[in-house]
Amino acid sequence: MELDEIQKRLLKEVADLHKVPEGAYNIRSNGQSIGRSSTENIEIIPREDGQGLTVKIKPGTKHESVHIPVVMTKSGIKELVYNDFYVGEGSDVVIVAGCGIDNCGNADSEHDGVHRFFVEKGAHVKYVEKHYGSGNGAGKRILNPGTEVYQDEESFVEMEMVQIKGVDDTTRTTTAELKQGAKLVVRERLMTHGDQNAVSIYKVEMNGEGSSSDVVSRSVAKDNSYQKFDAVLRGNTACSGHTECDAIIMGNGRILAVPGLEANDVDAALVHEAAIGKIAGDQIIKLMTLGLTEEEAEEQIINGFLK
Amino acid sequence: MLELQNVSFRVNDEGSDKEIINDISLKIPGEKLIVITGPNGGGKSTLARLIAGIEKPTEGRIFFDGKDITDLSVTDRANMGIGFAFQQPVRFKGIQVFDLIRLATGKKISMADACEYLSAVGLCAKDYIGREVNSSLSGGELKRIEIATVLAKASKLSVFDEPEAGIDLWSFQNLIEVFKGMRNNIGGSSIVIISHQERILEIADEIIVIRNGQITANGKGSEILPRLTGTGDMLPGCEKTAPVKA
Asked: Distance, in angstroms, between B103 CA and closest chain A CA?
């Protein structure tokens, strides 16, 4: 499989890949799979219509990874793909997804992916999804990921959702259903600039006793960008949930945080926190006393905040 | 090294002008440890902030190494060699202790280099170097990290605004040792400490007393200190750091 320089750069941004990955992988470029590999324990099967994958992870698979990055380098492509992950009982795997769009043309490029995770009993999944856009064309870079998570008893899913640069329009919808003792941890990091628009929606149903969820977003809205964080945790039994939105606004950036809690059981313990504000003046001054300019100080503060 | 010429600083307080610093002129010579003391609300911290450039004087000029720095920014002054330790150190979400020390040195440094500065302020480096400078740190820990950043910056003139405020007995004793160490290795630099503490005043080469925005005494430590004993300008223990009382 040959990768050109733009593809390599996008893969580095979204999946920290410098070359073809080891283990199971599928690399999709401009609407087609350009490379795929399964392993003894992880099978990647393309859907018949070509628009997505079924990934089957055998029970007990430990310390293996799946990479399924998507890159788009042609202007004007619009695609919708469905990827299903079946994570076998007791397995422990890392799944790295993500999409990079380089759009130098004038037509919009859009990748909408629907990922469904069926996580069996006691399995542990770390899921990393990074989104990145580049290119100077007038065409927009649009990403609308939908993620559905179905967690069986005592399973543990960690999700790291990152979008730092270049995506013009995104609506990220994540839903999860948790059975007994299941645990979901989400860490979202988001930065928007220019006229970008980003909406993050989380809906978590804690249906099993002892289940827990922790959904935390840290975000920065610069220039004229707009963000909405809408997280609803529903506790339908004895469970615990926490959601937090911690955001910095700069320039004319706007953020709407709508944390929602719904307790349908007397033993559901739910907490939300939300804070939005500009960078504290003292933080900038402290770094200026160390010799940084105001701009450098802001950059360091934001880098740290989103780290 | 540093000279203030007829510096005044006024703020608008509920419609009327309030004089915080009133026509102060003073010289901070090289190779000296100077302690600025005086009652609360007398203008000491404002003076320190005027030197660092965080506040700008409403009248008068400030010179550093002969150059008029009155209109220079905090950044420019920092790059010329003025360091400043905040009375209430700032917290940062996400920025680690190592990051802050690295930024202070202004160059690429190793973990081991950064750890030396933490050890110098009595912190077990390996426990702190990777910590975030956020609300998980206590006031005393933050204060010591703040001082470590000023040590790391290695300024020609280092200004410490009430370094003893908010720290415990053990930290305070350690702090005195840190300042003694700095004094012994002063080289061509100078240190200005805003403080009420007798034990800090004791190590001063010179003491400046500020009251109601004006200098009421200025001279050798050995001459000024006896005059302060028992007055409100100096705290024998420290009312602010109660556990310090020996």
From this structure: 7
Q: How far apart (Å, rounded) are the C-alpha atoms in residues B93 and A277?
A: 13
- CATH hierarchy code of domain B2-234: 3.40.50.300
**Chain A nearest C-alpha distance from B137 (Å):** 16
- A304 interaction partners in chain B (CB closer than 8 Å): 92-96, 99
Alpha-helix residue ranges (DSSP H) falling in A116-186: none
> CB distance A300–B95 less than 8 Å?
yes
pLDDT digits (tens, 9 = 90+) for B152-194: 998 999 999 998 887 777 778 888 888 888 888 888 899 999 9
DSSP type of residue B244:
G
Q: Phi/psi of residue A199, each to 5°?
A: -120, 130
Q: What per-residue confidence (pLDDT) applies to B239?
A: 47
Q: By CA distance, what is A286's nearest residue in B?
A: B90
Read off the pLDDT of residues B198-225 as tens digits, 9 standing for 90 and up.
889 999 999 999 999 999 989 888 888 8
b/e per residue B200-230 (b: at least 16 CB within 10 A): bbebbbbbbbbbebebebbeebeebbeebee
Choose the closest CB to B52 out of A218, A289, A301: A289
pLDDT of residue B232 exceeding 70, the answer is no
Domain ranges of chain B: 2-234
- Distance (Å) from the alpha carbon of A293 to chain B's nearest alpha carbon: 6
Taking the model in full, what pTM does it have? 0.84
Q: Where are the alpha helices (DSSP H) in chain A?
A: 5-15, 281-289, 294-305
ipTM of the complex: 0.90
Do residues B72 and B61 make contact, with C-beta atoms less than 8 angstroms apart?
no
Q: What are phi and psi for residue B141, nearest 5 degrees?
A: -65, -45
Strands A183-192 and A52-57 come out as: unpaired
Which among B84, B94, B106 has the least Cβ separation from residue A289? Answer: B84
Task: Determine whether the interchain pair A301/B75 forms a contact, defined as Cβ–Cβ distance below 8 Å.
Answer: no
Tell me whether residues B153 and A286 touch, CB distance under 8 A.
Answer: no
